[in-house]
Every structure is written in structure tokens, then in C-alpha cells.
């Protein structure tokens, strides 16, 4: 069964990654805008992509990890110096972004709403 993690903010994300030592399976990370009081992200595309990603997650190998990262509020994200944008490990340009950690596989923006693309990303090569 896929191990799921939920993280909020850049410091918590960095701490999680530092403590993630030699996972047995792939690590997939979904970066999304943080949730509002309604329980949904401020990012409309993130709201649309989340159920697609969750449904496709069944394609991931059982010993893999899925990390849902809330990057912060809209103002924090829009700042060009947002650490999620400037960190070379993430190099985020748009939300949502779904990637395989440490690998080139990456979906951005509307691509994360495409079930076929998301399923392909979760399938082991």
C-alpha cells in the first residue's frame, strides 16, 4: 500500500525530504496551494487535479510514497523568491506540480488534470 504523507510549508517539506532515507519505492510529490477555510486549495487547478491524482494513485507501486505538499497561501506562492520556486530540487513554475522525486518525470498545471498522464507518471518504468 502506498505510504501517504501530508506536509504544509517549505521548512516542513525540507525536513521531510532530509529524513526520507533510501525509500524502497518511488516518491511522488504533489505540490498544491494551501487550503482555505473551506478545506479546498486557493488554486482552482489544484482543486480540479486532486481527485484525478488520488484516483490514479492506485497505479503506483505498493511500496512507494505519495507526498502532498501545501506550498502556502497565494501571496507566498506568487512571490518570485518563494523557496519552492528557487530551490533547485523543486524548481516549481506552476501549481499544481506532480513529480517523481529525483527523477525527470513531471506534470505541471493542467497536465495534472489529465488521467492518462497522471496514471503514466505513477506507473513504474
Give the arrangement of secondary structure elements.
Layout: E1 3-8, H1 10-19, E2 27-32, H2 44-56, E3 65-70, H3 74-78, H4 83-86, E4 97-100, E5 106-108, H5 115-122
Parallel strand pairs: 1-3, 2-3
Antiparallel strand pairs: 2-4, 4-5
Helix pairs in contact: 2-5
Subcellular location: Cytoplasm
Domain Thioredoxin: 8-124
Protein name: Thioredoxin domain-containing protein 17
For this structure, what is the CATH class? Answer: Alpha Beta
The succession of helices and strands, N to C, reads: EHEHEHHEEH
First-to-last CA distance: 18 Å
Q: Which second-level CATH architecture applies?
A: 3-Layer(aba) Sandwich
Q: What is the name of the CATH superfamily? A: Glutaredoxin
Rg calculated over all Cα atoms: 14 Å
Helix/strand structural class: alpha/beta
Largest sheet: 5 strands, mixed
The proportion of residues in beta strands is 15-25%
Q: Could you tell me the CATH topology label.
A: Glutaredoxin
**Given the structure, what is the number of helices?**
5
Which spans of ≥5 residues are poorly predicted at pLDDT below 50? none
Q: Number of DSSP strands?
A: 5
List keywords for this structure.
single chain; alpha/beta; Glutaredoxin; five-stranded mixed β-sheet; 32% helix; 20% strand
Amino acid at each position: 500500500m502506498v505510504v501517504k504523507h501530508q506536509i504544509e510549508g517549505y521548512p516542513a517539506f525540507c525536513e521531510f525530504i532530509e529524513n526520507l532515507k533510501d525509500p524502497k519505492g518511488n516518491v511522488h510529490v504533489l505540490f498544491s496551494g494551501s487550503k482555505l477555510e473551506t478545506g479546498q486549495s486557493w488554486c482552482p487547478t489544484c482543486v480540479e487535479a486532486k481527485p484525478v491524482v488520488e484516483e490514479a494513485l492506485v497505479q503506483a507501486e505498493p511500496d512507494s510514497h505519495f507526498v502532498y505538499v501545501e506550498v502556502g497561501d497565494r501571496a507566498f506562492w506568487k512571490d518570485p523568491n518563494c523557496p519552492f520556486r528557487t530551490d533547485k530540487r523543486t524548481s516549481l513554475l506552476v501549481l499544481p506540480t506532480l513529480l517523481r522525486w529525483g527523477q525527470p518525470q513531471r506534470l505541471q498545471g493542467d497536465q495534472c488534470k489529465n488521467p492518462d498522464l497522471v496514471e503514466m507518471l505513477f506507473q513504474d518504468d
